[in-house]
Amino acid sequence: MSKDSQMRAAINQKLIEMGERERLKELLRAKLVECGWKDQLKAHCKDVIIEKGLEHVTVEDLVTEVTPKGRALVPDSVKKELLQRIRAFLA
Amino acid sequence: MKMEDMPLSGPDNTRLEALVHDIYSELVDDACLGLSFEVHRAVKQGYFFLDETDQESMKEFEIVDQPGVDIFGQVYNQWKNKECECPNCKRLIAASRFAPHLEKCLGMGRNSSRIANRRLATNNTMSKSESDQEDNDDLNDNDWSYGNQTSPRRSKSLKHKNGTYFFRCRHYNYSSGINYETLGPDEVRSVLTTGCVMPRCPGRSQRCPQHTDEQRRAARVFLLGRPPPLPDVDAVMESDTFDIPDGQSLMSRLQWEDSPDVSPTDSASSKATCCAQNEAKTLRSRSSAQKMVFIENKLNVKHCAPPRKLYSSRTRYALFRNTAERRGEAREAARGGQFEDVMFGHF
């Protein structure tokens, strides 16, 4: 298992060093804005804020609300494309 | 570039896939975190709810999605079929054409004055004497020929009826005409062998249409001091038999020392009949070449050489081309507009 984690660490390092991680991040962000994922999530945040009260909202609240919903809302096409790119990089 | 030091097999494949998914999840989590930070900051800074107002206003400006109506709820071709009465001409004009019609009708606005001016201009020029000038042009065009250059015709062509002839000269640039006083002996030789020998004649061929053979022979005799050997004086062969005359003697011959009457200043101030009589006397004793120069001076065309007997279009064009090439200004020849100026006197 440590070999596995070693491998992961090595891969991550490679990813960062070659700037591929940044590129993938930007690509994902652009695609999510394009498909309306961001607006959807923002609307959800609005509800949460109104629910919790404007003054008492914390970062943790928002994060715990946003992350699972966000993961679920990513469209399939975007997911597939990103997986493809990562595989291509690793291969 | 790629990671090629990872040989893949069955179990490794699944592990790789898991790895890929993990990387993907990390990226998505990053995106979500970024969004939540953004929203949190907006909330705390107070600009998160700025695009929302009270419910009433929200209802008022809601996006409309009905047929025949734009998203604001307005009908866009509402005024299409309506007609308005023009206060000026009392006609019924369609609403969309009303403003331009009013502009023309009242005579205000940018374009109406322009159109009116143009109309006035065309009406005026039609009644002018432009047609006369056209006739003159045609006349002169067909008139050139060898040995037909009597002076009355030349003086007729000199009358500057309008700017046309004058500017025609200017464009044609008679400075290309030969002025023997300014040439050195070598240049004189080249001129004698290439261009027309008559002084101040811009013709490029040895048989330029402006001057008769007799005139040319006379000019040669005068300049070179001997009659040319061959009977066909103006054949090109003759160029080989020229001696370069002594530059000084040539220049002195050009001075007209013994005929003060021929000087330009005199011609400029010719007033009394006695002057004219003197001139007639001196004129009779001169060769035809000298007569030519004298006449030129008399007619007092210094800066703009007389628009000679106007050449035919073809000759003019050929001369123009030659001039341009000689001066290495191929640009001028290529520029069509310049040629047109020469042809038609527009500028």
TrEMBL record, chain A:
Any one Gene Ontology BP term: transcription elongation by RNA polymerase II
Assigned GO CC terms: DUBm complex; nuclear pore; nucleoplasm; SAGA complex; transcription export complex 2
Record's keyword annotation contains Secreted: no
GO molecular function: transcription coactivator activity
Keywords, in A-Z order: Activator, Chromatin regulator, mRNA transport, Nucleus, Protein transport, Transcription, Transcription regulation, Translocation, Transport
Localization (cell): Nucleus, Nucleoplasm
Subunit structure: Component of the nuclear pore complex (NPC)-associated TREX-2 complex (transcription and export complex 2). Component of the SAGA transcription coactivator-HAT complex. Within the SAGA complex, participates to a subcomplex of SAGA called the DUB module (deubiquitination module).
Function comment: Involved in mRNA export coupled transcription activation by association with both the TREX-2 and the SAGA complexes. The transcription regulatory histone acetylation (HAT) complex SAGA is a multiprotein complex that activates transcription by remodeling chromatin and mediating histone acetylation and deubiquitination. Within the SAGA complex, participates in a subcomplex that specifically deubiquitinates histones. The SAGA complex is recruited to specific gene promoters by activators, where it is required for transcription.
Family stated for the protein in its record: Belongs to the ENY2 family.
UniProt name for this protein: Transcription and mRNA export factor ENY2
Record organism: Neogobius melanostomus (round goby)
Originating gene: ENY2
Automatic annotation (TrEMBL), chain B:
GO MF term (any one): transcription coactivator activity
ZnF region ranges: SGF11-type: 84-105
Any Pfam family: Sgf11
Feature: compositional bias, Polar residues: 116-128
InterPro entries: SAGA_su_Sgf11, SGF11
UniProt-annotated stretches for the region Disordered: 116-157
Residues forming coiled coils: none
A single BP term in Gene Ontology: chromatin organization
Acidic residues: bias regions: 132-141
Record's subcellular location: Nucleus
This protein's UniProt keywords: Activator, Chromatin regulator, Metal-binding, Nucleus, Transcription, Transcription regulation, Zinc, Zinc-finger
CC per GO annotation: DUBm complex; SAGA complex
Entry remark concerning the domains of this protein: The C-terminal SGF11-type zinc-finger domain forms part of the 'catalytic lobe' of the SAGA deubiquitination module. The long N-terminal helix forms part of the 'assembly lobe' of the SAGA deubiquitination module.
Assembly notes: Component of some SAGA transcription coactivator-HAT complexes. Within the SAGA complex, participates to a subcomplex of SAGA called the DUB module (deubiquitination module).
PANTHER family for the chain: ATAXIN-7-LIKE PROTEIN 3 (PTHR46367:SF1)
Functional summary from the UniProt entry: Component of the transcription regulatory histone acetylation (HAT) complex SAGA, a multiprotein complex that activates transcription by remodeling chromatin and mediating histone acetylation and deubiquitination. Within the SAGA complex, participates in a subcomplex that specifically deubiquitinates histone H2B. The SAGA complex is recruited to specific gene promoters by activators, where it is required for transcription.
Family: Belongs to the SGF11 family.
Protein name per UniProt: Ataxin-7-like protein 3
Organism, scientific name: Neogobius melanostomus
Source taxonomy: Eukaryota, Metazoa, Chordata, Craniata, Vertebrata
Designated gene of the protein: ATXN7L3
